[in-house]
């Protein structure tokens, strides 16, 4: 499964854009994202990947998410924690 591709599709859906326009380096701020959009994206990711991403509205790490690639890395990390030992 290509995690980045799935995240790109989720982000594109959130901002009503073609997934082909969304790259790893797409800036969330330039795409018009706000903190609520980030959280809604995280919820969609949790549902799609059946994982728990440890973020909430007051988590300071939300502000550290600057690009689509940043979100993909969070997913990769969460999937790694979910993997059997």
TrEMBL record:
Compartments reported by the entry: Cytoplasm
Gene3D superfamilies: ACP-like
Keyword annotations: Cytoplasm, Fatty acid biosynthesis, Fatty acid metabolism, Lipid biosynthesis, Lipid metabolism, Phosphopantetheine, Phosphoprotein
Main location: cytoplasm
One protein family per Pfam: PP-binding
Keyword Phosphoprotein: yes
Modified residues (O-(pantetheine 4'-phosphoryl)serine): 35
Example GO molecular function: acyl carrier activity
Domain (Carrier): residue spans on this chain: 1-79
Family: Belongs to the acyl carrier protein (ACP) family.
Reported function: Carrier of the growing fatty acid chain in fatty acid biosynthesis.
Protein known as: Acyl carrier protein
Organism: Bosea spartocytisi
